[in-house]
Amino acid sequence: MFISNAYAASTPASNELMSFLPLIIIFVLFFFMIIRPQMKAAKEQRNMIAALQKGDEVITSGGIVGKVTKVTDTFVTVEIAENTEIVVQKQSVQSALPKGTIKNI
Asked: What residues make up the domain containing 100?
């Protein structure tokens, strides 16, 4: 006929590891920049919640600041004002504050 067949040029055989290398590098960077810091922060949060005891000053995820008066397995009683206590779940405690923080507020 008038048009000749066109064939694809042969490519040299490349190493399969080199083709996956960018994907592996992206995964390693993703792990060290995103996943590992989140795991570290979650571990610190679990340790802080496990170490809660009576007398600690805390702030909840709702922004309530108070002093812990009672700790059970799943709940914490927090005194937010004189003779005013609320019961919250341990997981809602966002952070423990240094002693004397409530008096300075």
From this structure: 53-105
Q: Are residues 100 and 62 in the same domain?
A: yes
Query: How do the pLDDT tens digits run along the chain, 105 residues long?
Result: 677 777 766 666 567 777 888 999 999 999 999 999 999 999 999 999 999 999 999 999 999 999 999 999 999 999 999 999 999 999 999 999 999 888 888
Same domain? For 24 and 67 the reply is: no
The tokens 């992206």 sit on which residue? 26
Instruction: Strands of the chain (E only): list them.
Output: 57-60, 65-71, 75-81, 84-89, 93-97
